[in-house]
Write a structure and sequence with these properties.
The protein has 308 residues and is of the alpha/beta class. It has one domain (5-306): Ribokinase (UDP-N-acetylmuramoyl-L-alanine:D-glutamate ligase). It is built from eleven helices and 13 strands.
């Protein structure tokens, strides 16, 4: 199967705390930033696929069942019989949502460049990866750069979401790797706090200039409750956040990225794709879990029509 968007990273099974049972109840779902983005893209009508490795266990089989249901091609996901599929927990309090990951030594962290499906990468339109894809291990980081090299050689665009997680690596290493990945990206999807950490700058315009200056062709800076600031090298546009009633922001940035890529593939202008992605990401915060609340295209269109 030839896909539009081929994402690379680690998918996980999620246990998300709900408001039931005095906080002792958890909703089983799915996560993993680039997998979330691939599913978000698929729900907007794009052909999406995934590159990763899973353990030969119940959680790995659950993820394959999920991708089948979502129409995400997983023929380039290998099974590592010597490792496990990672899981994580999400807890909520007045300060927001907090993650606890159980992933060290996981199948995805054992990915190697030799495992990459070069033909599938060359046939895609966009290769999407993230800071987490590179942070889970040194071999995974090497795999990311090898995949980018394959994409560049084939004329495939590279999309990069910063998703900085300092529990996975040191800030100096994150800065070095992320600067290289931003430099190599055609589409950069950074979050505000991430670029502040790796640049030392604070103003949104400065952060966009920083990414463009490194070499990114277009930048969509995610600003959470403040919306987004997007720049295609010619125009800079501020997008207000879409009104919503958020209960869990897990995966909202991934939804933004997947929706934006899907709309660009569909032929939207960068501004149109950005406005669509803002609405999609807002809707995704109105339910628990990273995947379950991701809206489909009909829901996003209906919401956009309702708000003019």
């Amino acid at each position: 199967m030839t896909v539009d968007i081929l994402a690379l990273g680690e998918a996980m099974v999620e246990f998300n705390q709900t408001g039931d049972g005095n906080g002792r109840s958890y909703l089983q779902g799915f996560g993993g930033d680039t997998s979330n983005a691939a599913i978000a893209a698929a729900r907007q009508g794009a052909r999406a696929g995934y590159i990763s490795s899973l353990g030969d266990d119940v959680y790995g089989r659950m993820l394959r069942t999920l991708w089948d249901a979502e129409g995400v091609d997983h023929s380039t996901v290998v099974t590592d019989t010597q490792a496990f599929t990672a899981v994580y927990f999400v807890n909520h309090d007045d300060a927001g949502h907090h993650f606890s990951f159980f992933r060290r030594g996981s199948a995805a962290s054992r990915m190697m460049p030799a495992q990459l499906p070069q033909t599938a990468i060359a046939r895609a339109k966009i290769l999407h990866l993230s800071g987490i894809s590179a942070a889970i291990s040194e071999s995974a980081c090497d795999t990311c750069f090898a995949a980018i090299d394959m994409a560049k050689q084939a004329g495939v665009k590279v999309s990069f979401d910063t998703n900085l997680r300092l529990k996975l690596w040191t800030l100096p290493r994150a800065r070095a790797v992320m600067r290289d990945m931003i430099r190599l990206s055609d589409i950069c999807l950074p979050s505000y706090d991430d670029v502040v950490a790796i640049s030392g700058l604070k103003k949104p315009d400065e952060l966009v200039d920083f990414c463009l200056g490194l070499g990114a062709s277009i930048v969509a800076l995610k600003l959470g409750a403040e919306g987004a600031l997007i720049d295609d090298g010619r125009h800079r546009i501020r997008l207000a956040a879409h009104p919503c009633t958020p209960v869990d922001a897990t995966g909202a940035g991934d939804t933004f990225g997947g929706a934006l890529l899907a709309r660009l593939i569909a032929g939207d202008s960068f501004e149109q794709a950005g406005r669509y992605a803002v609405v999609a990401s807002a809707l995704s915060t109105q339910g628990y879990g990273a995947v379950e609340p991701i809206p489909g295209e009909a829901e996003v269109r209906e919401e956009m029509a309702r708000h003019g």
